[in-house]
Amino acid sequence: MEGDNSYQEAAAQAKLRRFPLKLVKGVPLMEPIADGWDIVENFQAFPDDLIISTYPKAGTTWVQEIVDLIYNDGDAVKCQRAPTFVRIPFLEIISPPPLPSGVEMLGKMPRPRIIKTHLPFHLVPRSIWENKCKVIYVARNAKDNTVSYYHFDRMNKTQPDPGTWDQYITKFIKGEVAWGPWSDHVKGYWAEKNNHQILYLFYEDLKENPRQQTVKILDFLERVLPKDIIDKIVELTSFSSMKNNPMTNYTFFPKNLFDHSVSPFMRKGEVGDWQNHFSEQQRQLFDRAYARWMDGVDIPFRDLL
């Protein structure tokens, strides 16, 4: 679907609501995705497809924009051709008609395609691995991820009501949120990163040295760009630039989908914002859960303290 008023009109017609979660192979997904799972599971990838995978609110849009600019040699005008979700469809998203599904949108796209997903490793369609597709995975500090996801669920009118912040922390720890437990997600891709073409990145590294991480992505994609174009990409994908870019900030979505008066889609993009939300009791509860999740795991996340 084109990135114009047609999407807003379709969204206005669709019967959208806060959909309940249903289990798909043990993972809670929004009801429309679960009910249409066969379409997602049988998705046919091409070898030149690039997959961008993250747990929700871990830097997905950021890396999508970096990659699209790389594919278009840093041409900002080309990357203004449509909103992010049109340029890089969300593989597993299924919404009520007349909104198109991610698979439907991908079926109409020219190759090479860039594809977004939040699916944990074991739910990724088999054709992606069979075709040896490249995958860029981004992981984010668990506490910051929890805070960002909470505010997103407040403004996203299709995901379950997050409840209070205290209630949400409990749900997050139990993995009772869309796309399941954070720990299973980050560990699943980490365990398989040497068995497939997976570039495993960290949100905190992207914040600390965006140019270095952009070059890492460029190398992974086996592409070469002049230094000035790389610098331009870094500038165009800064948080402030993307927050003010209507093609990346999701203000294009109508209010019955994303209510930006509750919380903006691009809220802060900071590292360590969790300290402004967690009480000491909540921190201790979360730290105990985190210690269980990561026992014996060598993923080099930054210190949570």
Automatic annotation (TrEMBL):
<dbReference type="InterPro" id="IPR027417">
    <property type="entry name" value="P-loop_NTPase"/>
</dbReference>
<dbReference type="Pfam" id="PF00685">
    <property type="entry name" value="Sulfotransfer_1"/>
</dbReference>
<dbReference type="GO" id="GO:0005737">
    <property type="term" value="C:cytoplasm"/>
</dbReference>
<comment type="similarity">
    <text>Belongs to the sulfotransferase 1 family.</text>
</comment>
<keyword id="KW-0963">Cytoplasm</keyword>
<keyword id="KW-0808">Transferase</keyword>
<dbReference type="InterPro" id="IPR000863">
    <property type="entry name" value="Sulfotransferase_dom"/>
</dbReference>
<dbReference type="GO" id="GO:0006805">
    <property type="term" value="P:xenobiotic metabolic process"/>
</dbReference>
<protein>
    <recommendedName>
        <fullName>Sulfotransferase</fullName>
        <ecNumber>2.8.2.-</ecNumber>
    </recommendedName>
</protein>
<dbReference type="GO" id="GO:0008146">
    <property type="term" value="F:sulfotransferase activity"/>
</dbReference>
<keyword id="KW-0128">Catecholamine metabolism</keyword>
<feature type="domain" description="Sulfotransferase">
    <location>
        <begin position="47"/>
        <end position="297"/>
    </location>
</feature>
<dbReference type="GO" id="GO:0006584">
    <property type="term" value="P:catecholamine metabolic process"/>
</dbReference>
